[in-house]
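Lecture notes, part 5. Sequence design as translation. It can be helpful to think of inverse folding as translation between two languages: the language of shapes and the language of residues. The source text, in structure tokens, appears below.
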């Protein structure tokens, strides 16, 4: 599991030089520099070169960099992977993954390219087959570090409408969270397509938090602030976590294995969760103090 906050994950087309520049000053935790669906076929090679130049030039500070490559079965996929095997990024994001075998094939290419051992893999879950195989994909290899929902492709394939409640997608969303938790990796919710619907985005973020997602993928800078807030621990959660930590230290000193706090039972499992929440808050504070 990653230790850095990954609340807001902003996509940008690799062919859009203005967006690549702008991203150096945006408050997103993660940037996905996209070579896949946001880039027209005629721009694929240009986008690859431009993204490589941008990440090598640096200036992204605390922001984690991820490159979404084209599918392995396309004319560009393999070359994309080879181009970024040793680039200063944290992960490759693989679109429309449907099996563990696809992950192993990418790992082979990375080995042949002498890839940096720190380069991780994120797999997009965005087809019915990908959702049904998400558990084997999440656990397919130690390089696996994240599952990213592709709810636009998924809605199309499932033939479900985009509604505020996302009823048609709840099963898929839940399966991805389960798979990620089973294998100790992160999981990110899909994009909110209506850029003018801040209230709808906030509700979608709250639903994502409630379902167990670590963060949400975004398509525009104006979606970042709402998302960062929604995926940060709430003030009352932090106060309770601090109280749990103190109460537990006192209980341990008294040789007790359980304690009552404000009338509610606290056991070791609650302490574990409190420590996790406090660590996330600390990471967010550290991140906010950086450029
Ligand atoms: C949707 C957009 C095309 C809108 O772009 P634009 O018209 O330029 O918007 P604005 O004028 O409001 O932009 C204001 C400034 O912000 C910069 N900007 C805009 N979007 C981004 C971005 N994503 N990253 C960084 N910077 C961005 C503009 O350059 C303006 O800057 P300035 O000149 O200084 O004022 C555009 O937002 C866009 O292209 N968004 C990303 C689309 C994308 O990447 N789509 C693919 C990923 S989503 C997907 O595939 C999901 C998945 O696979 C699935 O199946 O669900
Ligand atoms: Mg997609």
């Amino acid at each position: 599991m990653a230790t850095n906050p990954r609340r807001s994950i902003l996509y940008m087309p690799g062919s859009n030089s203005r967006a690549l520049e702008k991203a150096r000053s945006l408050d997103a935790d993660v940037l996905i520099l996209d070579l896949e669906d946001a880039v027209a076929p005629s721009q694929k090679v240009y986008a690859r070169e431009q993204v490589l130049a941008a990440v090598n030039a640096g200036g992204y500070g605390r922001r984690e960099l991820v490159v979404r490559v084209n599918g392995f079965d396309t004319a560009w996929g393999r070359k994309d992977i080879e181009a970024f095997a040793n680039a200063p990024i944290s992960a490759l994001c693989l679109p429309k993954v449907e099996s563990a075998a696809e992950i192993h094939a990418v790992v082979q290419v990375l080995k042949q390219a002498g890839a940096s051992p720190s380069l991780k893999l994120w797999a997009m879950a965005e087809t019915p087959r990908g959702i049904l195989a998400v558990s084997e994909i999440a656990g397919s290899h130690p390089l696996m570090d994240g599952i990213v929902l592709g709810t636009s492709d998924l809605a199309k394939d499932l033939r479900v409408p985009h509604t505020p409640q996302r009823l048609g997608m709840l099963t898929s969303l839940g399966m991805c969270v389960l798979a990620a938790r089973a294998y100790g990796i992160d999981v990110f919710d899909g994009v909110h397509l209506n850029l003018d619907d801040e209230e709808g985005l906030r509700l979608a973020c709250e639903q994502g938090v409630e379902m167990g997602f670590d963060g949400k993928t975004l398509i525009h800078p104006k979606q970042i602030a709402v998302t960062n807030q929604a995926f940060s621990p709430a003030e009352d959660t932090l106060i309770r976590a601090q109280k749990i930590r103190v109460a537990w230290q006192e209980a341990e000193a008294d040789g007790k294995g359980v304690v009552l706090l404000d009338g509610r039972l606290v056991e070791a499992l609650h302490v574990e969760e409190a420590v996790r929440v406090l660590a996330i808050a600390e990471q967010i504070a550290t991140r906010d103090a950086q450029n």
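The translated text above is only one of many valid answers, since several sequences can fold into similar shapes. The longest strand covers residues 8-13.
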